[in-house]
Amino acid sequence: MELRNLRYFLAVAEQGGFTAAAEQLHIAQPAVSMAIRKLEQQLELPLFDRQERQVRLTSEGEVLVRHARRILQAVQDAEREMRELHTLERGEVRVGIPSMLGSYYFPPILMAFRHRYPGIRLEVVEAGTRKLQQMIHRGEIDMGVIVSDTPPEELETHRFLQAQMMAILPVDHPLAAADNISYDAFFAEELVLFKEGYFHREVIDRISHEAGVTPNIGFETNLIPLIKQIVSHGYGITTLLEMVVIDDPSLVAIPFATPVWLDLSLAWRKGHHLSRANQTFVDLVLEQARPVQGR
């Protein structure tokens, strides 16, 4: 099988049609159709069920999709590793980071990496931890930050930070001077939360389930500055890592009566050989890791 034909086949499968695939690949649609016909003739199997304008994978096509993704990703990995084999003057690191850490933990690390290795292209993707796991699996990023309490079996993880989620309140809130806050007291308030898929939201969903309550969600947004403004003006409370509000005099961070600790790790596909550029980035993150805090 030719790699080009596999690439065209995967594009049709993912885009749901020959025309859409051709547009994505920036080639003429007949070239895509010809490649698929050649692949089907070579395999002596139908890969797509063509009904009027709808194109769907056959069961045989679904099997080939899984292999095609692995094959094309392996080729891409090999090409990148060969380019980077002898030097770190070139290369690429694609890393996914949740917005909270991307804004308040990683900037010094990213700048230090860029300063040490100016020839390496650094692509940073912001997304929730669940989305990042999917992107790692699909090969869209090389690695990502996940909460590693229950890491997926297909990922290799290396912890770099253990941090406590805190209840965040305005300084004039009645509970602002408390040593800690109970789940009951927290969930009695109107909440400002991230959208689903982010570890910030998953913490709330988990502890609300354990407490047997339904959160009273007044605002949903992934914009941290907006969350802080809403809370500081008294329109709700939230949970964040303490690092997010440590320099904000309008907000206070209070631990939960039952502390909520998070183990944050860098993760990549298990069995995947990291390129030199990626391994160098991992080494820097672990080198700069904050000491593990006691529970």
From TrEMBL:
Superkingdom assignment: Bacteria
Keyword Transcription regulation: yes
Family annotation (Pfam families): HTH_1, LysR_substrate
Keywords from the named record: DNA-binding, Transcription, Transcription regulation
Residue runs in coiled coils: none
SUPFAM superfamilies: Periplasmic binding protein-like II, Winged helix' DNA-binding domain
Domain HTH lysR-type: 1-58
Sequence similarity: Belongs to the LysR transcriptional regulatory family.
Protein name: Transcriptional regulator
Native source organism of the sequence: Marinobacterium sediminicola
